[in-house]
Specification:
It is a single chain. This protein is mostly helical. The chain has 3 helices and no strands. The longest helix has 17 residues. The termini are far apart.
Length: 68
């Protein structure tokens, strides 16, 4: 970490990966890579379009970035 604020640069992506693991991956027993891909793709769709985020004032990422 070589700059002011650098320690916080990855905080949002780290939260995303944590959410993905605890809300999707660890709860399922995928039978094939194709099944994992399909389920994780659906999770990302839900995460971006349906799931409100506290840090975004309870809006979805889609609402914040495309409905401004």
């Amino acid at each position: 970490m070589d700059g002011r604020g650098r320690a916080f640069d990855n905080i949002f992506i780290e939260r995303l990966w944590r959410s993905l693991k605890y809300e999707e991956v660890y709860l399922k027993d995928y039978k094939s890579p194709k099944e994992a891909y399909e389920n994780i793709s659906e999770y990302f769709r839900m995460y971006n379009y349906d799931r409100p985020h506290q840090s975004l004032e309870y809006k979805t990422p889609y609402e914040v970035h495309y409905k401004s």
